[in-house]
Amino acid sequence: MLYLVGLGLGDAKDITVKGLEAVRRCRRVYLEAYTSVLAVGKEALEEFYGKELILADREMVEQEADNLLKEADVCDVAFLVVGDPFGATTHSDLVLRAVKLGIPYKVIHNASIMNAVGCCGLQLYNFGETVSVVFWTDTWQPESFFDKIEKNRQNGMHTLCLLDIKVKEQSLENLMKGRKIYEPPRYMTVNQAAEQLLAIIQNRRLQGLKTDPMFQSGSLGLAEDLQGGMRREPDGASGRRLEERGVEQCSFSRSSKQDHKPAKGIKKDLKSGRDCKV
Amino acid sequence: MLYLVGLGLGDAKDITVKGLEAVRRCRRVYLEAYTSVLAVGKEALEEFYGKELILADREMVEQEADNLLKEADVCDVAFLVVGDPFGATTHSDLVLRAVKLGIPYKVIHNASIMNAVGCCGLQLYNFGETVSVVFWTDTWQPESFFDKIEKNRQNGMHTLCLLDIKVKEQSLENLMKGRKIYEPPRYMTVNQAAEQLLAIIQNRRLQGLKTDPMFQSGSLGLAEDLQGGMRREPDGASGRRLEERGVEQCSFSRSSKQDHKPAKGIKKDLKSGRDCKV
C-alpha cells in the first residue's frame, strides 16, 4: 500500500492522527523534499514520527518512481508531502502510476496554503487563479504571472502568489556538461517577487501599455501570516515557511510565536517586506 | 486561550496531533454544528478525543459568542470546525471579537474541501471563484452562482460548487410567529443542484439568451470523491460528506471504502448523480 500523507504547514505535530498512524505502520517512509520544505528539519520529523525518513528529491521521484512503487507493492510505503498531497502535479502523477501498476493507495489530506491563506482574513471564495512567481534569469523573464494577477483584479478576485523555490538545481554549465553539481537552494523572498513585478510594470509603462490602477501607486497587497511554523534563515533575517507546490513556495516574515492577532489592514507597503502576498 | 481547531474532512482521526493535544487540554470544547457536519457523529468524536463536546448551533455562535469568549478569557476553550477554521466568515468574526476583547487565540489548520478537491485530478491552480448553490424557494430563485460558473468557464477555470445545507432552520411561519420550531435538516444533493442549474439554462433559452456551449449538451462536469469519510443518509441512498463553509456543503456519493482509484474521466453524465461537482 502507498500512503500519500499531507504534513500540513507548521511543524511535526501538524500531521493528522491518521497520517501519523500510517507513517508508523510503514516499512519505508519518503519525505518529498524538492517542492517544499517544512519549518522544522528532517531530524525533528524523524524524532516525532519515530521513523527514519528517506529524502526524496526531484530526480528520485521523477526518475525512480517505479522503484518506489514496486516497494509499495510488497510492503507499506509512505510518501510525505508538505501541505496537502495534491498541491503539486508530481504527486498526481505518482498516483496515476500506482493505479497503472495496480498498487493500492490511500491519500491522507492536510492543510495547504491554498486554504490556510484564509487566515489572513480574505475570503477563500474570492480568490481567482493562483499564480507562481518564478525566478527570472538573464535570458528568461516571463510576465505571465503578472497578466493573471491583473486579470484576477479585473474580476474583483484576490490572487495567491506562490514564490519560486530552487532546490538541487544545476547551473546551465553543469547541466550541459552532465556534472551532478548542484547550486545552493534558493527561496524567493517577497521583496524579490515584488522587484520582478515592479520591473514588469516599468517595462509596460515604457512600452506605453496600461496597467491596473492598483499598480500605479507602487504598492502591492501583502498579507502577513497568522500562523506559526516559521523557518529561520541562516542569516536570521527572516522566518520563512514553504509550501507544497510544484516549484513554488509561500514565505512569511513573522516571528515564530504562535499567538497572534488577525491582520487588521492586510495591505502593506512594498518596502515593509512582508512575505505572504495575496 | 481560544483554540480554533480544524477537524479535516473525514473522521475523528483526521484531526492533527497538535489539534488533538489542544482539545485534550481545554476545559470546554465546542463543536460547530451548523455550517457543516462530519462523516462521523458527535459521539465518535467525543470517544476519540476523550472530551465532552458542546454542540454550537448558529444561534449559539452568533448570539452568544461573547459568553464563549468570556470563558476563553479564564480557561482554555476549543472551537472545533469541520475542515479548516477559516472556511466560513462566521469564524473570522469570532476571531475578530476575540481580538477586540483582548483574548489570545490560536488557529490549528486542517484540510478543507477548498484544497482537498485537488484529489479529483484537477489542478488547484486552475480553480476560479468558488460558488454556493443555494436551495431555491418558491419566491427566491437566485441565478448568480450560474453566472459565476459561466464566467469561470469563459476564463478557462474550474468551479468548485458548494451545495447548500439547512440545519436548524425555521419555516417562515414559525419565524414570523417567533416559534422556535425547526425544520428537519436538509442537504442539497448534486441532482438537486443540477436541476436548479438546468432550470436556469432553460429560463435563459426561453428568454433567447446565450449560455456557454458546455451547457448546451445537457451535461455538467461532475467529479467523484477520491477519499473516504462518508456519511450514510437514513434512507441509505447515498453517502455524503459535508464541508465547513457558511451555508454550504460538498456531498459525495461514493461508497465509504478508503481504497480507491483516481478519477480517470471526471466528467460524468448528470443522470449518474455523482456528487462532488467541480
Automatic annotation (TrEMBL), chains A, B:
InterPro entries the UniProt entry points to: 4pyrrol_Mease, 4pyrrol_Methylase_sf, 4pyrrole_Mease_sub1, 4pyrrole_Mease_sub2, Dphthn_synthase
Name assigned to this protein: diphthine methyl ester synthase
The enzyme's E.C. designation: 2.1.1.314
Originating gene: DPH5
Reactions the enzyme catalyzes: 2-[(3S)-amino-3-carboxypropyl]-L-histidyl-[translation elongation factor 2] + 4 S-adenosyl-L-methionine = diphthine methyl ester-[translation elongation factor 2] + 4 S-adenosyl-L-homocysteine + 3 H(+)
Comp. bias intervals (Basic and acidic residues): 230-247, 256-278
Region feature (Disordered): 226-278
SUPFAM superfamilies with a match to the protein in the record: Tetrapyrrole methylase (SSF53790)
Keyword entries, A-Z: Methyltransferase, S-adenosyl-L-methionine, Transferase
Pathway annotation from the record: Protein modification; peptidyl-diphthamide biosynthesis
Enzyme's top EC category: transferase
Domain Tetrapyrrole methylase: 1-181
Organism: Willisornis vidua (Xingu scale-backed antbird)
Protein family according to the UniProt entry: Belongs to the diphthine synthase family.
Job of this protein: S-adenosyl-L-methionine-dependent methyltransferase that catalyzes four methylations of the modified target histidine residue in translation elongation factor 2 (EF-2), to form an intermediate called diphthine methyl ester. The four successive methylation reactions represent the second step of diphthamide biosynthesis.
